[in-house]
Design goal:
With about 250 residues, this protein is α+β, with helices and mostly antiparallel strands. It has 5 helices and 10 strands; from the N terminus they run βαββαβββαβββααβ. The protein is globular and about 60 Å long.
Length: about 250
């Protein structure tokens, strides 16, 4: 009997070309498809795995959510273990749960939380360096918090979209941005209903510019209203970004 399974997935995105399946490139979705095909001995084109979003190349996830309809005949934990045995060491299925037949990982998501980690102190992080963007001088977090406050709310975030050909509405709700220091690392957390391509990384790049006083915090509303990508800061490196959680 076919069942709709909800998967919670964790991955180190360092060596992958993002989530979405691409021909001749290693992606998270592609590796999951291969694992399902191998574990259940079924053709790779006989099912479709749907992710809650499309993380960029080099971006990580602590809890990505996906769903897939399968006729596995297996208990949830057994299916989880089979998938993990077929996956590479940098991807793990944390849980497999039978969901309602109408559950859709993307369309039913009501919010996402992303964390971006920066090291701007005198001592470089060694053991987590693959997941941290390293800067050579300290940021002014007070100015960044003022700018982050202007970034929150319901806005047209076209100035923070990395896809210049994006035709759909670029209005989104970002209801919370927090900036905190702990153990020598700076974490920028973003919660919203959804994010545009590269949006979090461009927001981070803009906040870094504010932290170095190259962009005035008070100019953020003008940048948003301009709808001009060139007015915002650069796109921050992918390795510092991690999808922490998807809300349903």
């Amino acid at each position: 009997m076919e069942q709709n399974y909800k998967l919670t997935i964790q991955y180190d995105g360092t060596r992958y070309f993002g989530w979405e399946h691409q021909p001749d490139k290693e992606t998270i979705q592609g590796k999951l498809e291969e694992a399902i095909s191998k574990s259940l001995n079924i053709p790779i084109d006989s099912f479709k795995i749907i992710g809650a979003g499309r993380t960029d190349a080099g971006v990580h996830a602590r809890e990505m959510t996906a769903n897939v309809v399968l006729n596995s005949g297996l208990q949830e934990n057994i299916l989880r273990d089979k998938l993990n045995s077929a996956l590479p060491s940098d991807i793990a299925v944390l849980s497999v749960k039978v969901a309602s037949e109408r559950f859709h990982a993307r369309y039913n998501a009501v919010g996402k939380t992303y964390d971006y980690t920066i090291s701007d102190g005198p001592i470089k992080p060694i053991f987590n360096r693959k997941y941290v963007t390293i800067l050579d001088k300290q940021l002014d977090t007070d100015a960044m918090k003022i700018a982050a406050n202007y970034m929150t709310g319901k806005h047209d975030y076209k100035a923070f979209c990395g896809n210049s050909h994006f035709k759909k509405s670029s209005v989104r709700i970002v209801d919370k941005i927090t900036i905190s220091r702990k153990n020598g690392l700076l974490t920028l957390s973003f919660h919203g209903t959804g994010f545009l391509q590269n949006m979090v990384r461009i927001m981070v790049g803009t906040l870094i510019e504010v932290g170095y006083h190259r962009i005035d915090a008070e100019s953020i509303p003008e940048i948003i209203e301009s709808l001009d990508r060139k007015k915002a800061g650069p796109t921050a490196p992918a390795k510092g970004l991690c999808l922490r959680k998807v809300d349903y």
